[in-house]
Amino acid sequence: MFSQIEIDLKKLDNNLKQMTGPRHPILNAAAEHLFKAGGKRIRPSIILLVAKATNNKTELKNEHKRLAEITEIIHTASLLHDDVIDECNTRRGMETVNSEFSNKIAVLAGDFLFAQSSWYLANLNNLEVVKIISKVITDFAEGEVTQGLTNFDTSISMDNYINKSFYKTASLIASSCKASTILNDADLFTQNAFYNYGKHIGLAFQIIDDILDIIGNSTTLGKPAGLDLKNGNLTSPLLFALKESEILNELVEREFSEDGDLKYGIKIIKSTNGIKQATDLAIEHTQTAIKYITGCKESEALNDLKKISEFIINRLN
C-alpha cells in the first residue's frame, strides 16, 4: 500500500533517529529508545500520500517530508507522556522509557520532543501551518485532562468518548493532513476535505485501538492488554457493553479492584455486542473519511488513502 512512499519512509526513519540531537545524552537516549522501536508510521505515511494526492509534481517537497517527521515526533512525545500516566511498562514490544529510565526522564524527554517539533515547525516558515499544528499539542493536553477526570465514570456518553478520541488521536492526523495541503497551496475546499478525511480516519484508528485493547494480547499489541480498562479509560466497546450488562457496570464502579475483576470484565465485553458495535462505528468513520475525498482528482496516492481505511479495519484480523 505504501510502495510509492517506501523510500521516503526509510529516510524518515533514519532522520528520526538523528534529529533528536546529542545535546543531552540521557534525553537523546530516551527519545531514541522509542524511535528505534519503530511503529506503524501510519501518520507520516498519510501525510506523504496527501502531499502526493494534492501535488501536480511527482517529487515531494522537502517541507512535506519535514512535516511528516514533525507529526511523528509529536506523536512519539505524546506516547512518552501517556506511558507515564498509564504506568505502562512495555511499548512496541520493548521496555517503555519510563521503565528503562524513570518517570521524570520520560516526561522530560516528551517535553524535549515537543520543543524539538516546535523548532522544526517554525523552520517551515509557514505561519498557517505553525498555527494548525501548534493547536494539536493543546488538544493532546485537553484530551488527557478530560480522560483523567472521567476515569471509571459510567455516565459518560458516546459523544464524550468521540470528543476525547479526537483530542488524543484524530486532531494530529486531521491537522497534519490539512497542513500538507496548505504546503501545496491547495484551495480551501481541498484543505477542508483532507482535514475531515484525517479526522475520521483518526477516529476509526482510535476505535480499533480500543477494540484491540479488549480482544488483543500483549504480543500483538506490543503493550499490556486491558490497560485502558484497568486505568478506567472507558472506550467504545465497553460503553456499548455497559448497556447490556449490569454486572459490568458494578465491576467498573468498583474500579476492577477485586482479584479477577479485569479478566471477568473482558470476558463480559466479549460476550456482548460491544465489540461488533464498536467495529461498526469504526467502519462508519472510515466510510465518512472516504466520502470527503471522493470528489478529489484521482491518483495512485488518493487510491492508497482510500485503502488505508481497509488497513485500519483489517488490524482486527
Overview of the molecule:
By secondary structure, the chain is mostly helical. It has one domain (3-140, 152-314): Farnesyl Diphosphate Synthase (Orthogonal Bundle), CATH 1.10.600. The protein is 73% helix and 1% strand. The chain contains 16 helices and 2 strands. The chain has helices at 6-18, 25-36, 42-53, 62-85, 97-100, 103-122, 127-149, 158-182, 188-215, 218-221, 227-230, 236-242, 246-253, 261-271, 274-293, 300-314, and strands spanning 90-91, 94-95. The chain has a two-stranded antiparallel sheet. A hairpin with a 2-residue loop joins strand 1 and strand 2. Helix 4 (62-85) runs antiparallel to helix 6 (103-122), helix 4 (62-85) packs antiparallel against helix 8 and helix 9 (188-215) runs parallel beside helix 16. It is globular.
From the structure above, extract its key features:
single chain, 317 residues, mainly alpha, Farnesyl Diphosphate Synthase, two-stranded antiparallel ribbon
